Amino acid sequence: MSNKLYHGAAYYPELWNEEAIENDINLMIEAGINVIRMGEFAWSIIEKEEGKIDVSFFNSMINKLSNHGIETIMCTPTPTPPIWLTHNHPERMYVDADGRVMGHGSRQHVCTNNAYFRERAAIITEEIAKSVGNLPGVIGWQIDNEFKCHVSECMCTTCKTLWHEWLEKRYGTIDELNEAWGTHIWSQHYHQFDQVPQPHPAPFLHNSSLKTMYQLFSYEKIAEFSDEQAAIIRKHSQAPITHNSTTFFHVDNERLYENLDFASFDTYAEQNNFASYLFNCDLWRNFKKGKDFWIMETSPSYSASLENYAVPHPNGYLKAEAVAAYALGAEAFCYWLWRQQRTGCEQPHGSVISAWGKPTVGFENVMEVEKARKEIESVILSTKPIQAEVAITYSDIAKAFIKTEPHKGLDYRSLMIDYYEKILSIGYHRDLIPEQANLNGYKLLFTPFVHYLSPNYISQAEKFVEEGGIWIVGPLSGGRTINHTIHTDAALGELDQLAGVETLFTYPMDGTESIGEFMETSATLGIWSSVFQPKEGKSVGIIKNGLSAGKAFLTENRRGKGKIVMLGSLPIGEQGDFLLKKCFNHYAEEANVTLKTDVSKGTIVAPRQGNGYLVWIIVNMDGMGGTFTLPYDGIDELSNEYISNRECEIEPFQYKIIRFTND
Fold first, then answer.
1. Is 111 annotated as a binding-site member?
2. Which CATH number covers residue 421?
3. 13 preceded by cis ω (within 30°)?
4. Which spans of this chain does the record mark as coiled coil (predicted)?
5. What percent of the chain has a predicted confidence (pLDDT) above 90?
6. Which end of the chain has less Cβ packing within 10 Å, N or C?
């Protein structure tokens, strides 16, 4: 890709006549759109009849856009198989957990593991790649669209066969599976792999091992499908390849991006949920470390479908979103969608241009984004995001475990964003990192809500601690094995010994009137919790009242140059937030975390490193304005004004760029 910041949109020229397309291109130029994503829903246009593939429309469209200085991300159209592939073929269709077979008419209605679907998907991917792969206007590829957005694990007969093959490869023998899953419980013992069911409807809950392993099987199969398409494209194109995912979808993003070239995501968070938006930026920056990510879809105003709609963004927020994204490592900021759909289930969705070809309520905000892009581009291109000193582990494997074992409605993504927001709100620059990420350069590591800690993860974390890092583990971390069973040597397995604790009890603290006290601060404790007795180290958080009064919910144990901190329970409510922030600040100070900024709530700082100098990009996200304190003298890059180290004000949704005169 070229050395620029991209400002783009999803476009569906196959739905419009030549006059509308010409009007669209003129408005794109006016709005500063320099990249278009297209093709992901166009299978029936490219292959109207089976075997009759014609990519010429998109070939000419890419060239037309290129002639106007607009580049293209080309998509494979596999999320929407045409009627000739699905009609009268229920064996090809996705089957949900209740056994319902999907019909034609929406998207993601076919099982992506079906052999015939895979064959036709490979053929059309190859024909598209051959036709447009070497066009100068094609700067990148997107495989499919939003894998597992509307569906999760498929229960069709194809998947049943593949499931049994996957189990045999994983366990080797049926005796190994029976031992790992403990199948003698409730007479679930199997004599051969093809007896192991899919988690179809059952009178009560399925075995936890079966339920979680089926999710991991599904994760692996959709990643294999992505790998297959990527390999085909690479035979005909040098342009980098991505997929547009989110933390909502039923995929293992770390595995998905393993064989892709850059990471991209979709987000439709409302302005009052800007922490969720920043969460994605801080995570996607680290799926392909060292490579800029793309925001492939976000609404210029609001998301909507026939059945629902979101609150429109206030004026000014879109600009704040874009600047924050570019500052945190995005190369592109793109909208869904350019021209409003005139038909289908997403007709009401916010767009840049209306179905009748006029600017929408979001158009002026798009123009603001373009103005900001031009203003910040030279600074962004001459600097790089600084690695944080604080890391928070994110795991889609953990998401699968919590989906199997949600207790009373726990949701991994919600838990993580709430936890993340506390770290964000006290001003720490932070990285969300996948499980296999390298821990070099970090000083403080958080590992909340990860039921299963792999030997590799524990080994890396132990090394991190030995070399001087502080590792805060929990709550809900370490208490399950790889097969989603309970440890029998200690409540948290190897973690008990490593942390120098005996986990005495694990039980739900909600409603038990248990109070946690840490550094003279008290709060109610909740969710499923672990109660500790230190064998080494010491108790630093004591439980008052409830079933385990006098025992510890927070311990620390020095190992090597660093420390392991066990957080066994979740402080809740306003006092819980206060206690957690106090805890995080305490250990950040002890770890000598310096990448912390004094900003008012709702304002963020994205630090970036230039060649021998440091830049802060400050953005107000909550629309309330605020303040930030400079650690030393700097230059305002936008006004060229010299600013001394002092508290400064920032207006609602304003952004500032400060270059420091001494590093």
1. yes
2. 3.40.50.880
3. no
4. none
5. 98
6. C
**334 among annotated binding-site residues:** no
pLDDT digits (tens, 9 = 90+) for 404-440: 999 999 999 999 999 999 999 999 999 999 999 999 9
d(CA 183, CA 178): 5
pLDDT of residue 1: 57
Q: State whether 144 and 162 are in the same domain.
A: no
CA 76 to each of CA 45, 241, 242, 506: distance values in angstroms, whole numbers, following the listed order: 12, 11, 11, 48
297 counts as catalytic: yes
Report whether 145 belongs to an annotated binding site: yes
Q: Are residues 549 and 649 in the same domain?
A: no
To the nearest whole number, what is the mean pLDDT of the chain?
Answer: 97
Nearest-CA neighbor of 210 among 158, 147, 164, 156? 164
Query: Out of 71, 126, 153, 297, which one is annotated catalytic?
Result: 297
Q: Could you tell me the pTM of the whole model?
A: 0.97
153 catalytic residue (yes or no): no
- Structure token pair of residue 381: 């291109």
Helix (H) or strand (E) holding 325: helix 317-327
For the chain, the residue count is 663
Q: Is 107 assigned a ligand-binding role in the annotation?
A: yes
CATH number at 45 reads: 3.20.20.80
Where do we find the tokens 């005909």?
A: 236
- The per-residue pLDDT for 645 is 82
User: Pairing state of beta strands 614-620 and 641-643?
Assistant: unpaired
Residue 159 marked ligand-binding: yes
Q: Based on the domain organization, do 559 and 419 belong to the same domain?
A: yes
Closest CA to 292 of 264, 269, 267, 260: 264
Q: Please report, for residues 608, 638, 657, the alpha-carbon distance to residue 617 in angstroms, rounded to integers and kept in the order given.
A: 8, 11, 5
CB 580 within 8 A of CB 424: no
Segments of the chain scoring below 50 in pLDDT:
none
Extended strands (E) in 77-214: 138-142
Which domain does 203 fall in, by range? 157-212
Burial class (CB in 10 A: 0-12, 13-18, 19+), 99: exposed
Flag whether 483 is in a domain.
Answer: yes
Beta bridge partners of 562: 559
Among 146, 389, 462, 637, the active-site one is 146
